[in-house]
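Researcher: Checking consistency across runs. Here is LysR family transcriptional regulator again:
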Amino acid sequence: MDLNSLKVFVEVVNRGSFSGASKSLNMPVSTVSRKVSEFEESLGQKLMERSTRNLRLTDQGETLFQYAQRSIEEMEAGLVALEEKQEQVEGTIRVSMPPNFELTWDGLRDFHLEFPKVKVQLLGITRDIDLINDHIDIAFQYGESTSPSSISRKVGTIVPMLIASKRYIDQHGSPQSIEELAQFHCLARDNPNTENFWTLNGEKYYFIPIMTSNEFRTLRFFVKNDMGIAQLPPYFCQEELENGEFVQVLPEVSSPTVEIHMVYASRKHLSRVVRTFLDFAKNYTNDEPKYWSAN
């Protein structure tokens, strides 16, 4: 059943004429008449008798009108209540993510604009997270959670790239193979007491870096200052690649795909704020995959 046509039919009856419905619906009289006729045809029922001066409901039309009017009024009331409920979404949500996780910043801004009464507390955390003990509602992280008490929802994937500044390449040349990387300054993302390697073409390539950091923004700074080659996610270097400041090194070499997950404690008993955030984040990453691939 076409609900729009049903609404037109009810409005014609309420206004007592096609012209009255035309004015209230801001719709040409011919369109009002056509919609009612098509609606009758789809039902296989004559709903009203028309004349040049008035109209009269048939028995079938009277029965439908009595039910339809209540249904439309309830549906419109439900839509108003839904809008009011959305406006009333408020509270606090604690969200953790890796430090400098710029991938989410635009989305967090848009979430605030849509739900201004929600206070978002952001925490940059590098260690493993215990959602309950750390009082975290939602965690963004690279890879799926291994905790049996947590639920992971994949929201996208990224593929990092080997990047250097154009000035560095102009001064030192560019490696032509993975093996030649050893002849260049390499910048590694690591944590203390870990071996440094990049996974390239499915294999680990170990190297001795000239400088390391556990933050991508720091590595981007080193690259900007012509200090060497780093492996960066697209969202940390896309703008510089587009304006020519950075160049991709060994573009034919593949890097591993990294999944981005939202992790939360339970599907049951989620607060309205958390459910709203989860739905927003899912829709946002599907609609705005600027630096990542959606599911």
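Researcher: Does this match what you'd expect to see?
Model: One thing to look at in this run: Residues 3-84 form a domain with the Arc Repressor Mutant, subunit A fold (CATH 1.10.10.10).
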